[in-house]
Design goal:
Elements: E1 8-13, H1 14-24, H2 38-54, E2 58-64, H3 71-75, H4 88-103, E3 107-111, H5 116-128, E4 133-137, E5 152-155, E6 160-162, H6 164-171, H7 178-185, H8 200-210, H9 213-218, H10 231-252, H11 276-283, H12 287-298
Parallel strand pairs: 1-2, 1-4, 2-3, 4-5
Antiparallel strand pairs: 5-6
Helix pairs in contact: 1-2, 2-4, 2-12, 7-8, 7-10
Length: about 300
Amino acid sequence: MKTASQPTAHLIDGSLYVFRAWHSMPDEFHDADGHPVNAVHGYTRFLCELLERERPTHLAVAFDASLTTSFRNAIYPAYKANRELPPPDLEHQFVQCRAITEALGVRMLVDHTYEADDLIGSTLWNLRSHGFRSVIVSADKDFGQLLGEHDEQWDFARNQRWGPAGVFERLGVHPEQVADYLALCGDAVDNIPGVPGIGAKTAAALLGHFGSLDELLERIDEVAFLRLRGAASCAAKLKEHGESARLYRRLTRIALDAPISDGADGLVRQRGMTQLESLSEQLRFGPLTRNRLRALNSAETSG
């Protein structure tokens, strides 16, 4: 999948790994002021392990800061309305996780209008024009739509990697069809209802036949005659909810025009950062974590 001459950038879905640490780490870690920092300790271990294993030369971590202010909320107010805002303790830990990211010299991406997915997508798109391939570190199925021929997605926790062919194996659609697929069958995680009565298998079958949501809606009269269970009902639902599906696609499609810096130089990890020691003291990291952070801060890249 990787060509010998092609540089690689790792683009990390930071919020996902903060949430995972929040849910998986015991409530026994506190900072110097007595605030819980279990998510910070878990996230720091994750980031250290990734840096130690991969020794990436170019990388960025994207965080969500737009749960209620994303451009998608303006399009569809119910977007992610099913999600509770992070409790204050976790919100405080997000700030500390961002501080750790920057203290390790890693580029941080955050915006109040665009989500982490959009920041990763826009960065990937920009890097591709500079000859880079990207490895998206996340388990989120939405990212499948970004994978080009040489790109990968990496579910770090399960240590599973896949390229464009793996998207089809998982969802039954090709990368360029993922946004259409999610618009049709919906995405409960983001409170996107999809077209009533159309589940994942039906959405994949329809896109396999028509190729795209636009083509499907243009040829909607053909749907009733497909060899598909409930084809007539499916056609009726599409006629009734076709415009809603187009709206949902505006939500499921990852933006490629988020404000990011041009080029790859800004993604080169910096070393010799001075704030790590004081941050480690504030977060009450143990000797093992401190030694890992020091080594990563001073190590020469191996490419």
